[in-house]
Every structure is written in C-alpha cells, then in structure tokens.
Amino acid sequence: MGRKQVVSRFSGITIDMDYLLCIPSIHAIYDKEEIVIDYCGGIRKKSREFPVEKNELLIHWISKHKDEIMRNHQKCGYSDFPLDLIEPE
C-alpha cells in the first residue's frame, strides 16, 4: 500500500492521510497548494497561497469528522487495513 491514501474529496480539495505521520492529521491539496491540519484544527504546514476560505472549510470538515479521522489514524500503521472514506462536508 502507498504512503498516502485519499479519504475524501470535495470543493476541489483532495484529502489524504499519511501512513507514516505520527500526529493525527489530514493532508489536503487544492489546485497546487497544500496544507496539513491536525485533528484539532491546528495548521502544521501550509503553502503560502492556500486559500483562506478553503482552510476554513477544512477546519469545519475536521470538526465534523474528528472521530472518523481518529479511527483512520489508528489504522494508518497497518497496511492490511485500508482507510475508510469520509463523507465530504
């Protein structure tokens, strides 16, 4: 299994989770811009041009799907368990 697996797509944003990342977080790509946000909504890394409105949308999505993100994070260390898809918005 690859290092990252896509768990959701919406509003032009692709969200994946990194199998090697120790901190529960999501990695999102919009156009060519990237952001990494932890499950509490804290920004871990962000491209300079990542749109503020997409950032706010992601933080709302994370708060709505926090439990699902945590369940997926628990699976990340085991390649035998593919991550669950998470509903957009």
Write the layout of secondary structure elements.
Layout: E1 4-10, E2 13-18, E3 25-30, E4 33-38, E5 43-46, H1 52-64, H2 66-75
Antiparallel strand pairs: 1-2, 2-3, 3-4, 4-5
- Secondary-structure element string: EEEEEHH
Strand content: 25-35%
The overall strand count is: 5
Q: What's the total helix number? A: 2
Biggest β-sheet description: 5 strands, antiparallel
Silhouette: globular
Q: Structural class of the helices, strands and pairings?
A: alpha+beta
Order of strands, main sheet, comes to: 1-2-3-4-5
How far the N terminus sits from the C terminus, by CA atoms, comes to 26 Å
Any idea how many domains? 1
Oligomer: single chain
Task: Report Rg.
Answer: 12 Å
Mean pLDDT: 87
Which blocks of ≥5 consecutive residues have pLDDT under 50? none
Approximately how much helix is present in the residues? Answer: 25-40%
Describe this structure in words.
This protein is of the alpha+beta class and 89 residues long. It has helices at 52-64, 66-75; strands at 4-10, 13-18, 25-30, 33-38, 43-46. A hairpin with a 2-residue loop joins strand 3 and strand 4 (33-38).
Defining key terms:
89 residues, alpha+beta, 5-stranded antiparallel β-sheet, 5 strands
Sum this structure up briefly:
This protein has 89 residues and is of the alpha+beta class. It is built from two helices and five strands; from the N terminus they run E-E-E-E-E-H-H. It has a five-stranded antiparallel sheet with strand order 1-2-3-4-5, with helices on one face.
